[in-house]
Amino acid sequence: MKPRLLHVHDIPTTKCRVDVKFNELGYRVESIEAECMSQLTKSRFEMIILDVPACRLKKWLNSASNLFSFPILWWCDERKPATTAPHEKLDGVLCSGMNDNELQWSLLIGLKNYQTRVHLEREYRFLSTKLEEIKRVECAKISLSKQKNISETKAYEWMRTQAMNERKKLVDIAEAVLTEIK
Q1: Does 67 have pLDDT greater than 60?
Q2: Which of 35, 56, 99, 111 has fewest C-beta within 10 Å?
Q3: Looking at residue 51, what DSSP letter applies?
Q4: Residue 155: alpha-carbon gap to chain centroid
Q5: Residue 141 and residue 174 in contact, taking contact as beta carbons nearer than 8 Å
């Protein structure tokens, strides 16, 4: 069974009806106006196709990415696509000049781009959290070494020992040290 596509438009294209094109390819397409996107948050789709002009792409791309967590593709029906269009949340571009095979492949590439983007976003959040934890531990180590007039190495060893004895994470001990010092 082919995936369900959500076709979002603010001014529907007249040259090539996106919903009709994908229905002919065997996809299940639901077409709505962009202003009605928020009403479909409980609906299940595999992809969203934004059928909007480049000048309004950023606005609707932000709305769609806040509401949905699946691939977002842009139906570009313009001669010169916007080079300043926001592409950080855009997983692919489709255009009316594509034949059926090109459209199918573009959908697959869009899905792969989405999976890669989600993975990278998840990895970025994880690494950012770890970096913040390292900063907190370093700050606590420096504060503790100044407070107890010991070397930073000794301060770190003391925090590590406390973490093992209390069966807590090192960052929790660092937070306690920073709270106690303030």
Answers
A1: yes
A2: 99
A3: E
A4: 39
A5: yes
